[in-house]
Automatic annotation (TrEMBL):
Its main location: membrane. It comes from Campylobacter vicugnae. InterPro entries: Membr_insert_effic_factor_YidD. HAMAP family: UPF0161_YidD. Keywords: Cell membrane, Membrane, Transmembrane, Transmembrane helix. The chain crosses the membrane at residues 34-54. It comes from the Bacteria. Could be involved in insertion of integral membrane proteins into the membrane. Belongs to the UPF0161 family. It is found in: Cell membrane. This is Putative membrane protein insertion efficiency factor. GO terms for cellular component: plasma membrane. The gene is yidD. It is a peripheral membrane protein.
């Protein structure tokens, strides 16, 4: 898993800036790959990433395409105390035990007191 993640990061840092921007989806294919690798198993991630790369061409419309991950929640998990850490991703139900993985952005900015 770490090898695949480091390969995507290498591509994103060193190869992608040399190429013209051509991804037809949000999040970009490399972001999609990183999100998928961090939240799914290696086989499921590689399959989803491969399908996404095959769809990223002129024959498909493009648009917003969030990763879909499989996750089961136990009732005790839902009643845990909330942590002080802001969430990095939101899980939005897609089907039974499958969720869209959406990045959480922090729009609150601390203003300095003058």
């Amino acid at each position: 898993m770490k090898i695949a993640t480091s390969l995507v990061i290498f591509y994103k840092k060193y190869i992608s800036p040399l190429l013209p921007r051509s991804c037809r989806y949000y999040p970009s294919c490399s972001e999609y790959a990183l999100w998928q690798l961090s939240h799914s198993g290696i086989i499921a991630s590689i399959f989803a990433i491969s399908l996404r790369i095959l769809r990223c061409n002129q024959l498909f419309r493009g648009g917003i395409d969030y990763p879909i991950i499989k996750r089961k929640f136990t009732p005790s998990y839902l009643f845990l105390k909330q942590s002080q850490v802001e969430p990095k991703f939101w899980l939005i139900r897609h089907k039974k035990d499958k969720f869209y993985l959406i990045k959480a952005f922090d729009y609150q900015r601390k203003r300095s007191v003058r």
